[in-house]
Design brief:
single chain, alpha+beta, two-stranded antiparallel ribbon
């Protein structure tokens, strides 16, 4: 089973060659567009330009299906001063927040010593190309 989600907002699952998803109509349109252009199997879908959090979610899902999802920061906690998890930062990006300063404002990550800001920047550069 391959899964990508924005907690409490959207989810895409590929299990036993069947695709399941839940979320807003905007996500459904993006998924249907991929199906029309590249077929029903997400292994053959193409990563898209990022305009919103649903694009980040869809790209994560596609890369996971292709076994090519490799975030740049592998530790569980990205901000040690404020004890902010990497997962919280990833979910904030998938909510459509694409600047380090706004991520810091919303999560408090990077507001202590600031050394994690470069790691947040690297995550943004990977996910929001």
């Amino acid at each position: 089973m391959i899964r990508a989600e924005i907690p409490f907002k959207a989810e895409i699952v590929f299990n036993e060659n069947r695709l399941f998803f839940s979320g807003p109509e905007a996500l459904e349109k993006k998924i249907n567009n991929q199906r029309q252009k590249n077929g029903d199997n997400p292994i053959f879908w193409k990563v898209i330009s990022v305009l919103d959090g649903y694009d980040v979610l869809l790209n994560e899902f596609i890369l996971r299906c292709q076994n090519n999802y490799k975030i740049t920061y592998l530790h569980e906690e990205i901000c040690h001063c404020r004890m902010i998890s990497t997962e919280k930062i990833l979910n904030t990006i998938k909510q459509g927040v694409f600047s380090t300063s706004e991520i810091s404002r919303l999560t408090m990550a990077g507001t202590g010593c600031g050394s994690c800001k470069k790691d947040i920047d690297e995550l943004l550069n990977y996910l929001v190309k």
